[in-house]
Amino acid sequence: MKMKNKAKTVIIGGGIIGLSIAYNLAKLGAEDIVVLEKNYLGSGSTFRCGSGIRQQFGDEANIKMMKRSVELWSRMEEDLGMDVDFRQGGYLFLLYDEDEVRDFKKNVELQNRFGVPSRIITPEEAKEIVPLLNTEGLLSAAWNHTDGKANPFKTVFAYANAAKRLGVDIYEYTEAQNIKVENGSIKEVITNRGKIETRRVINAANGWAKILNKMVGVDIPIEPYKHQGVKTEPIKDGEIKPMVVSFKHDGIYLTQEAEQGGIIGGYGLKYGPTFDITPTYEFLRGVSYRFSQVIPALKYANVIRIWGGYYAETPDGNAAIGRIKEIDEYYIAAGFSGHGFMLAPAVGEMVAEDIIYGKTSKPLWFYDPYRFQRGELRGKAIQMG
Ligand SMILES: Cc1cc2nc3c(=O)[nH]c(=O)nc-3n(C[C@H](O)[C@H](O)[C@H](O)COP(=O)(O)OP(=O)(O)OC[C@H]3O[C@@H](n4cnc5c(N)ncnc54)[C@H](O)[C@@H]3O)c2cc1C
Question: Considering just the CA atoms, what is the radius of gyration of the chain in Å?
Fold first, then answer.
């Protein structure tokens, strides 16, 4: 497909965030939008993610954003015209000591205040939810049945197709190699396939965001760390419906895929900052050991695949989203750590509201990219893996 040489908006990054922004901008009536993806859609972190979607955060902004996201996940088939395997199987946080129980009780109170129906349950109740669970040493668990998961592959295609239907042009294998700025205004984006004249750029390049920022002289602390995921062969259908999480076991998270029936998940082994995403034997051993401590039956499940991907991390584990003041019409939405997939529907909607209306219905200010410069870090986002 021949590339346009002029556009009103150029979004750099064809992951779930760039595509959700493109779709939402077009939905609010913006025209002439281009998405550039240097590889194929989803090839960054999005296709490598663990598919989890939760509202169980420990701060008001993430809870509100995720509550909105879950509303949008619930009606995604209607909105985007494609089933993305969204299943509300819940999230089950396993709690093994008094400190964890105290912290999660506080989180649950906050979540309840904003309408998320999470609660603290007993080990017996946890075992009813996941009969294969090893409850030895378990004091209690935090449970929310409206959390869930979805298929990242289908979601990317659903957003891309819906955006295209609204007139968005998406160019794969098209790398933004430079951004030309003159007197604080964007002039053009230079790609391996030619130039696109534009006044507005949205940096949705996640793990690579800092490379684009450098092109325009902006410095925001977002660094790529290698995290890994694992998938087993299918086990009996419906065995592990929720995402099961244990910080006691080094941040493991695991769930059964809705469609294919394998277990997917990971744990908190990380390397970096690095652009290397080669999977490691250390991860394979570590994840197998920890999974089988929590779900002993998984000892007998064969691993069919491990893979590496980025958590694009900021110092407080929350993304940097917003307008960059020094350059007219330069926006960033990157640094989503281990929770960008789940947040994407609300982030896309809020960024579009911000650009079109100049205000947002949910607290986007929380992700202010200038907070690092001011030394105003947010509380560390609850993060597994
Ligand atoms: C092992 C693992 C498990 C995870 N589990 C979960 C989970 O359970 N739930 C959850 O919500 N999140 C999870 N995440 C995090 C989630 O994957 C990310 O937060 C999310 O995918 C970020 O989406 P994105 O669109 O910002 O980034 P990406 O998907 O990385 O997209 C950015 C895109 O930009 C492109 N790009 C970069 N530079 C350029 C350029 N110069 N020109 C053109 N294109 C460019 C890249 O090729 C890439 O496709 C997990 C991540 C990993 C690695």
Answer: 20
Answer whether 0.85 is exceeded by the pTM: yes
Residues 346 and 278 in one domain: no
Structure tokens at 108: 């649950």
- Residue 331 Cα to ligand 1 midpoint, Å, equals 17
CATH number, domain at 161?
A: 3.50.50.60
376 within 8 A of 333, measured Cβ to Cβ: no
- Write out the residue range of the structural domain in which residue 241 sits: 88-146+223-313
Q: Is the CB of 192 under 6 A from ligand 1?
A: no
Nearest atom (ligand 1) to Cα of 175: 42
Question: Is any atom of ligand 1 closer than 6 Å to the C-beta of 332?
Answer: no
Model confidence band, residue 380 (pLDDT cutoffs 50, 70, 90) = confident
94 within a domain of the structure (yes/no): yes
Which helix or strand (DSSP H or E) is residue 162 part of?
A: helix 152-165
Residue 336 Cβ contacting ligand 1 at under 6 Å:
yes
160 and 306 part of one domain: no
